[in-house]
């Protein structure tokens, strides 16, 4: 984070001034979030990320010149910010292109303001985040078919409690929701999640969810009911 360790610095990259203004209004009412810059196209966004070194870049997809996917790849490669891709286009093409480019988050522009704020905070803390409506498509693209055999070797290092946490992660629950489900403190859940990621050798929660499906621990359609 910035020199003020409690503040997350955000760069807005979108070719529509009204959209940038709306995002700025949503974010700057939060005491821990600061919009440090804006850019109207991908090339300018890459340059501003290099100049400002924000914690999080909110990146539009379709922009003149360098588009948001290419700009995301450049920002990630340069290490000048973690990127949340925001788009009006709910398509697999944009979703998987953004993930391949190294985006840490993907949200639709019709997301609630609270979801946008939560996404910025989560990504700033090093987490990955996908809009709930696209998580299933990620699983369906990368996970094994529902009839695949259970592969316990992928989960061999996990304790029973950690497997339970992974199942709830795969159902899309937040740390707070997992804590309520398991009657644990949220700090304890955070520790369990960190251990799950470490033991599985995955970078973030999204990869952990995919592995949960690949292993057969969770199957498409499971809802815990």
From TrEMBL:
Positions bearing 4-aspartylphosphate: 60
Record-linked CDD domains: LuxR_C_like, REC_NarL-like
Entry's Gene Ontology BP terms: phosphorelay signal transduction system; regulation of DNA-templated transcription
Domain of life (superkingdom): Bacteria
Keywords: DNA-binding, Phosphoprotein, Transcription, Transcription regulation
Record has Cell inner membrane as a keyword: no
Stored InterPro entries: CheY-like_superfamily (IPR011006), NreC/VraR/RcsB-like_REC (IPR058245), Sig_transdc_resp-reg_C-effctor (IPR016032), Sig_transdc_resp-reg_receiver (IPR001789), Tscrpt_reg_LuxR_C (IPR000792), WalR-like (IPR039420)
Protein name: LuxR family two component transcriptional regulator
SMART domains linked to this entry: HTH_LUXR (SM00421), REC (SM00448)
Native species: Pseudokineococcus lusitanus
Domain HTH luxR-type residue range list: 151-216
Every Response regulatory domain range: 9-124
Molecular function GO terms recorded: DNA binding
UniProt cross-references to Pfam families, sorted A to Z: GerE, Response_reg
